[in-house]
Design brief:
Oligomer: single chain
CATH architecture of the largest domain: Orthogonal Bundle
Number of helices: 9
CATH superfamily of the largest domain: Terminase, small subunit, N-terminal DNA-binding domain, HTH motif
Length: about 180
Amino acid sequence: MVKKKKKAKLSPMQDKFIHNLIKGMTQEKAYIKAGYAPKAARKNASRLMTNDNIVKELAIRKARATKLADVNAANIIKGIAQIAFFDIRKIYNRDGTLKKLHEIDKNTAAALVGVDVQESIIYGQFTKKIKMSDKLKALEYLAKFEGLFEKDNKQKGEGFAETFSNLLDEIDGKTARINQK
């Protein structure tokens, strides 16, 4: 008979604290939203983060969330590549008009941050403004991934793990990290 590890015993407020952290709240905000007193929230939230049961449960839930969201190196690199190799011509029809959003393929749409449409009252015309992700930054991340800046990375004291970990933090704020050795 295989014994299962017992789940850490958490109070309802501790459970809510962890839930709020997973949602992306700061420790202080997660602490208050969990029902704890706002007085000295930063200090007390920091203290909670030293509780072994909370640390273990937080790690378990982050891993579960990462797996459910399918956050992995391959998908992250694919997402960066979609931005880096975005071709602006794919959002226009042959006659030069902007395609409707449902006509844009998913890879192209992944590189767009937003589309802003404004109607001019004076002229009765529409103005369309397209916001795209930072293509140069995406190319830089891919170049680092491929080791093209290896000399620069060594000079700065940054290895791949640190660069990639910073990328993950920028992309998803704490959902996934690479363990540095």
